[in-house]
Amino acid sequence: MSTTKPTPRVLVTQAAEATIDLLRDEHGPLMFHQSGGCCDGSSPMCFAKGEFRVGSNDVWLGRIHGCDFFMSAAQFAYWQHTQLTVDVVKGRGASFSLEIPLGVRFLIRSRLFTEAEEQHMTPVYDGDEYPREA
């Protein structure tokens, strides 16, 4: 039995966690979908949970600060060897993401996984079959 903790595919900074807390207080449970280039380039978009419909064309990468994080399966094919970190910066994005009225926007910082990390990856699921919290 292995005691190695799986390598997370998506992380979140403390600054982004603080913004998520503000948004959760106002909007309730949240979710993220990594934009594929429409509207605001390729920014992580934050929605009230269920406001963005996910399905078999989407991939669930994990949870950040209690929020499910998805991206399109086609985009994941390019990003599958990259660890994503959701961060927040001052400025206004051009998206429909919930943080925009706060004068900030979420963004992705990324790095390639090491060979060792890739041996113990967190599994991904399609948007119809991801592990929902009870």
Please count the helical segments.
3
Mean pLDDT: 90
> What's the total number of strands?
8
Do you know the CATH architecture?
Answer: Sandwich
* Helical proportion, percent range: 10-25%
Give helix and strand order, one letter per element, not per position.
Answer: EHEEEEHEEHE
Q: Structural class per helix/strand content?
A: alpha/beta
- The value of Rg in angstroms is 14 Å
CATH topology: Hypothetical Protein Aq_1857, Chain: A
Q: Which geometry do the CA atoms define?
A: globular
CATH level 1 class label: Mainly Beta
- The CATH superfamily is identified as HesB-like domain
% residues in beta strands = 25-35%
Task: Point out poorly predicted stretches.
Answer: none
Whole-Å distance between the termini? 26 Å
- Biggest sheet features: 5 strands, mixed
Strand order of the largest sheet: 3-2-5-4-8
InterPro entries: DUF779 (IPR008497)
Protein name: DUF779 domain-containing protein
